[in-house]
Specification:
The protein is mainly alpha-helical. The protein contains eight helices and no strands. The termini are far apart.
Length: 151
């Protein structure tokens, strides 16, 4: 047996019949176990360019989020002259980028979870049909993506 194996055997044996806290209580994002410096290292070096992915829920907890104020600023600077469209796009972008639950987004706008879903569906349809709006959306997405990395 190697020194490492011996050391591990001693480590495990020292906890037999003793109470201890699970080391998994400190897991971050369901997948990372380590101190804040290690978690930040992984985020900066491996996750900085990633976008939320519904097939990777752990990733949602680890990637930098876009804040609602950043969304509001981006939308207002691009769509400031149409308050109705701006409101719908703010809801749409909040759903796309913040990671907040529908209830939290709705509470921010004074609407229900269902209304958030409907607003997002209407925005998606409108964006799909209107190429000029789609270009503005692309521009705002780029601006929002860059806002995730500001210090």
């Amino acid at each position: 047996i190697s020194d490492a194996q011996n050391g591990y055997k001693e480590f495990v044996s020292s906890y037999v019949n003793k109470k201890y806290e699970s080391p998994l209580k400190d897991v971050v994002g369901s997948i990372l176990l380590g101190g804040p410096d290690f978690v930040n290292f992984v985020k900066e070096n491996f996750l900085s360019g990633k976008r939320p992915d519904k097939d990777l829920p752990a990733l949602r907890q680890l990637i930098p989020r876009i804040s609602m104020p950043d969304i509001f600023h981006a939308v207002d600077s691009e769509i400031g002259n149409d308050p109705t469209l701006a409101r719908v796009l703010k809801i749409y972008f909040c759903r796309q980028h913040t990671g907040e639950k529908l209830k939290a987004i709705g509470a921010n706008f004074g609407i229900s979870e269902s209304a958030v879903s409907h607003a997002c569906r209407r925005a998606t349809d409108r964006i799909r049909r209107n190429s000029k709006l789609r270009k503005k959306i692309d521009k705002m997405n780029k601006k929002l993506h860059h806002s995730r990395f500001k210090t």
